[in-house]
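Fold this: Thioesterase domain-containing protein
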Amino acid sequence: LTPQTEHLEDFTALEWCNRILSDPGVTKIQKRVKLPPLNTDAPNNFFAKTLFKDDAVRAYLSLYRPGKGQRRNTVDARVSSDALLGREKVGEEGAIFSGSNGSGRAEKKEISYDPESPDTPEALLLVSLAPGLDGGIHRLHGGVTATLLDQVMGILISYAHENTSATAELNVKYKKAVRTPAVVLLRARIVREAGRWIETVAWME
């Protein structure tokens, strides 16, 4: 079977995407992990295989901005840009740049965050969406929108706490149709933590 191609040129062709990718406040950039064709027992097969098609999610990059003044240097930014353009080999599978955020969940007291503050940890998800995901003519299926919001919130928790989690509750408000094909950005931020319970907010731009 021919391996799927991550069409990162969909991102690098857009100036607003390049600004995000070169933002020194973004300390982690991760490609979608490519799975062997016959691998059916892997985490997140839905994004890694089912939606990894030219007529579905053509390109996918997750990013993490920890806030609190944490930054990567200009050399790191250049390496990530080169990797996106194919001029640099990617080391760890899928990883373009990864820096330790030094975070953990040693304390279990309740913590509240201001989702409007630049110091609040934030995950970003860039996706290039093709018409194969349509629910109407050139209109993204609402279930895909909900799935992408759920995905970016899960990414946020995995980056912030270096652990995965299961979704207990998801409330979605649809404000307008998403036209396809399109490159969209999803953002997620932590709102509150109480023991193992983590509340997040996410939106699509």
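Residues 87-93, 100-106 have pLDDT under 50 and may be disordered. DSSP finds five helices and nine strands in the chain.
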